[in-house]
Amino acid sequence: MTDFATPADRAAFIAALPKAELHLHIEGSLEPELMVALAARNGVSIPFASVEEVRAAYDFSNLQDFLDIYYQGMAVLLTEADFFDLTAAYLDRAHADGVRHVEIFFDPQGHTERGVAFDTVVGGITRALADGEARLGITSKLIMCFLRHLSEAEAEATLDQALPYLDKIAGVGLDSSENGHPPAKFARVFARARSLGLKLVAHAGEEGPAAYVHEALDVLGVDRIDHGNRSLDDPTLVARLVAEGMCLTVCPLSNLKLCVVNDIAAHPLKAMLDAGLVATVNSDDPAYFGGYVNANFIAVADALDLSRGELTQLARNSFTGSFLSADEQAPHLAAIDAVAR
Length: 341
Hints:
Mean pLDDT: 96
Number of strands: 8
Strand order of the largest sheet: 1-2-3-4-5-6-7-8
């Protein structure tokens, strides 16, 4: 075992490392217990009689089956208090894992199409983020995602809704079903978002091909790639990503659950690090995929026998790949180095 006498020693080292999480869908942190509680609080009928039935429904094997239950779960989120409770519960779990900064996604279209006001969603999430900073010391940035299975016109309308809240939104992203919905479909709305001073990220190369990563870079002009696994299919693309220092927000347990990889031992994370890519470890939709940040670190570290140096690099990448300024990153990087010594 590289650098560690036992798996417990490696887990303890991971737990001690300060981390940032850059790929987290807040709706994907809806644990079965909270889903059932919110359904009862709001009088929403869900097709599950118990927490155990919800947990059983979280057993799926592909992206579309996951998305079906994911959007079904959203139905219990109706009030500002619901979004506050959802976000606060995630922050508590992140804090327990040594996470000091989060850049979280939210999907307003999944809520406004149900008649929930944009202000309700943003209000609850941002109030919880502010509370999390005061209570736990976790800093945050909020990224609004467009659902790529919907039209660009609908994304434009969502950006219109966001205009009064741009002081609370740091960037825009692109998520949902990847295949058949290339990044170029959203070229105009991303250009507009850039003109408004927003950061740009996009899911690319998860189930879609390396060509989608090229499009995200060349057509959308993104600042960060979410997932990016399929980049390894294209050596020229890998060389470009390395040269540009482009961050990839990798999600190991998500990749396993959605059969992007068949075995965590076959995960490309170590190959990414060996190639010099700025890879990070994130939990994606942890309530559905079986673990928050530390669980993802531990799973991939054990399967790939990652060294202290590699784990330290992953933690450093999480901050250098964030949208924090260099001055804001510096104390976190120093804290990582103190643990790694």
